[in-house]
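Side project, low priority. Logging it here so it doesn't get lost.
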Amino acid sequence: MSSIEINEKVKREISSCYILGRLADESDPERIPALGRERRAVSISQRNENNVVFYLQAVSDEPKLLKDDLGKSPKECYVSFDDFNSRYLQSIKYYEQADKVQFLREHLEGKLILFKPKLNFRNDPVHKFHYNFEIVLVSDDKNEANDYVVIPQVKKGVPAARFERSLLDKAPVQLPDYPIYMEIPEFILCDGYLYFIPEQDVLVTGNNNNLYYAMKPQSVKRLSVSEIENFWDHIKCAYRELGFITAKYASDLRDLFDQRGSSIIQEEASHPKKEEKKDRTASKPLRTLSEADFIARLKHYSAEEGLVYQEEEALVNFHTALKTENIAVLGGMSGTGKTQLALLYAKALGLKKDENLLVVPISPSYTEPSDILGYLNHQLGLFMESETGLVSFLERASNNKNELHMVLFDEMNLGQVEHYFSPFISLLEMPKDQRTLRVFSKDAICHNRKLQNGINIFDNVLFVGTANFDETTKDFSNRMLDRMNVIFLEKTAFGQAMGEKEEGISSFDMELNVNRDTYRDYWVNNESRLEESEISLLDRLHELMREYDSQIGVSFRIAKGIGKYLSNIPEVSEGNPFVTRKTAFDYQIKQRILTKIRGHREQIQELVGTYDLDINKYQWGYITRLLLEERSASNGEDDFKASLSFLEQKAKELTRNGYAL
């Protein structure tokens, strides 16, 4: 009997756990519940001859609550009926089979099955719960052992240095697919390193469903995955941020850590401190806000508004894109918080609406620059400013060069961006001291003499756009996409969103505003550096894309922008970036290059691939194959995750609609 209350919240959180299993062992039929006509792993239901019942047994750790509070035996079966797993069964064409029992038996026999447990109440005073399940994945990996050990991975994109710093500071670390209802993990993967947690009390759980803290960081050891022979070959049933190894291989790894593993404390002491770049420290103000504090402030404001954004792919990514270019666009489905994020970013900078923040709602009727700027009335000799107030705002910004200003073009692609935004497209590419916006000819007769020489647009003005991508909006031209990042916001799972709000916020400066010098001089490194492997991949992508469309590819402008982005990844602390360079490069391929690939099936299908909806399988295109080849060559099992997911989504759009936006 349970010693705690199993309410709906607990049941929901239990159902977010992942367990590795196999078909129930028929050599001990007494352990198989009598819900079928036969006590076999797959059978016709006793209650309804149209239903099939089947049973799984766990071969990896189960949630602690099931074992400790509910008294579940490891050999006790999980049970489900075919209509409870219809989503997965449809994907394997189960319902088209004449003999469903035999088909399901053959499909599952000898395989590793990843599933989520489902607790359901039943009318039994002793056994109060059904242990149901939902199939997540049936792996081609054969069932080689009776016991497997899970290896969770740290939140995507987190560098090893940042993970270790969090452990040493006893700060929270997130294992996104490993809820706190599971046992403390013995091994953790992060950024090409495997970490060994020798005892359960080395880590403790937090309030958030996926947060862990180190109580004995000195006990944690690490090894580079590249130093472990054939490590990835031993990973079975890999899914999202999880993988499994046999208990025998786990024992081998323990021996290897005893022989060669090094403490993360020793590792930190051996690392020389990274020298700060002179061009940035020389201009550092006496009192300024660090980027780490700024991002923490932005995350805090988001939580206050009840909004949850992915820290790395949304907040850090958006900030890096905007500070290294002159414009960034937030895209995604309606309701993901694009406008709110832009406004919260302005708030975190210390900007105020109608003072140094201007919101310009774009209308579908906007077709030329005068719609957002205004026009010269030749009869009156007066410049008639648009109702947007953009000209007056830019004039104020020009007169206050050390004060940051932001213009937000809301629903930017409702109008034809290439037309109404045309004065800014080339202007923002010019050196900051040569950007002069002319709202009418210098030789025109106009009584607004202060506008006669135009308005200087300095780098204290940030331009942000929001965009939906559907049948009601216009496409961004390749010319526009060459000049900006399009950052796609993904909706966070509701359960994760609720959990994120429980996380405590560290102390940081909430008062200091950010001026132009801090934003452009102290936060920005002006170098644009690409590594040889990155240049090689960009060249290969360019050649591949040019074969199918001479108007798309990787321009010098894009390559330079990617190099600058990669040179400006914010740091949590000295030498400790928020995201790995590989992850940042992945973001850039998705945002600067793959956004150009759109059109009808016959135009782009070979590039992005196809998707078979009947069997729920992605058939790779040429770009996908190229990225997977690059991943294999670098032995980085998690490389290009965002780009590959983006390509798969485009393939689904092609299959469903015949085109992709």
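Brief comment: The radius of gyration is 28 Å.
Revisit when time allows.
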